[in-house]
Amino acid sequence: MGTQGTYSIAVLPGDGIGPEVTEQAVHVLQAIAQQYGHSFHFQYGLVGLAAIEAEGKAISDETLAVCQGSDAILFGAVGGAQPGAAVKPEEALFRLRKGLQFFANLRPVRPSPAMLDASSIKPEILQGVDLIVVRELTGGLYYGHLEPGVPGKPSEIRETPQGYEAIDTLLYTEAEIERIVRVAFDLARERRKKVTSVDKANVLSSSVLWRRVAERVSKDYPDVAFEHLLVDACAMHLIRRPASFDVIVTENLFGDILTDEASMLAGSMGMLPSASLGTRRTEHGIFGLYEPIHGSAPDIAGQNKANPIAAILTAAMLLRHSLGLKEEAATIEAAVEQCIQAGYRTEDLREEGKEILGTKEMGQRIAERV
Ligand code: ATP
Ligand code: MG
């Protein structure tokens, strides 16, 4: 058992199934606290639609300040506004990511060995899959730039005499590429020591620079195997030979698409956690924002149907990266695996002969095993 500590965690449950799954993640963290003698101080804040309705903003400055003062942020999900609403719940995420400079989004994909036979993908292809996608989160097409003096906006739809046209700009600086590639190499050192850098260097200038910088950074990590892959080829190989990947590093949009694809290797969106990290260190690790990769899922909200495993594994990532509690993180992951092995499933994982549990019941079983 490691040393006992006191930690502050900002909790932003948000909308839809966010509060339901976050509640279970908090229960599991409370079980860890009890088991290891830590004390976690949870500070709750409003975010998303819930915050818009109460405070007129997707996230208030006060809530942002609470987040800033914490060791880590546990986030549920936001969404579910009417199309065309004046304030979008998703703005909360953009403010958090951009404002707190969480530029590295980590998405591990490790299918449970107990679920391989139920997958629509052949078990022999899924065997041994244990990869992590490192997605750049604060640059690229999502945040267009134009050089000073160039007219127009970096991202807009505009009217011309010939009809409408639209523009988005994809800009990366050397420094932005270097810092994300370093995150990937540092992670690989603690894993199977392989980095795959994904780009579209046969078409995009930003990718040519990406490749050049990645190549240079790789020289500092002679102990880590390194390869480049075009994004289209990567999309194919993720389905054909997913077990061959260890760490995949890529720009914002490619990472968005590849991680949704990769989520199917794990069986359901309800299984996958994520961490968004920056450079700021806390007393115990790296300051971060932790959220399941799924959204608010309004279609199943309030029915005790959502799978809480993604949120619970997200809490494990929080312990590992921000609080430096590696053993405790592994304890949560083992408890999740035990429950799957015991035959417990949620609705999204429905499988012949398995026991279907609700959100609360699944969370409870996992917390008990912790
Ligand atoms: P958002 O706009 O917030 O992303 P969405 O409608 O796109 O909401 P997602 O959360 O992205 O919903 O989910 C897409 C689909 O996957 C939905 O049908 C949802 O029911 C299902 N899903 C997502 N998360 C879970 C979960 N934790 N457990 C079970 N099913 C889920
Ligand atoms: Mg969605």
Automatic annotation (TrEMBL):
Cofactor(s) demanded: Mg(2+); Mn(2+)
Annotated PROSITE patterns: IDH_IMDH
Catalytic activity: (2R,3S)-3-isopropylmalate + NAD(+) = 4-methyl-2-oxopentanoate + CO2 + NADH
InterPro entries named in the record: IsoCit/isopropylmalate_DH_CS (IPR019818), IsoPropMal-DH-like_dom (IPR024084), Isopropylmalate_DH (IPR004429)
Keywords assigned by UniProt, alphabetized: Amino-acid biosynthesis, Branched-chain amino acid biosynthesis, Cytoplasm, Leucine biosynthesis, Magnesium, Manganese, Metal-binding, NAD, Oxidoreductase
Binding site for NAD(+): G295, S296, A297, P298, D299, I300, A301, G302, Q303, N304, K305, A306, N307
Binding site for substrate: R97, R107, R135, D232
Subcellular location: Cytoplasm
EC number: 1.1.1.85
Residues the UniProt record annotates as site (Important for catalysis): Y142, K200
Main localization category: cytoplasm
UniProt-listed PANTHER family: 3-ISOPROPYLMALATE DEHYDROGENASE
Subunit structure: Homodimer.
Family that this chain belongs to: Belongs to the isocitrate and isopropylmalate dehydrogenases family. LeuB type 1 subfamily.
Protein name: 3-isopropylmalate dehydrogenase
Organism expressing this protein natively: Ktedonobacter robiniae
Primary gene name: leuB_1
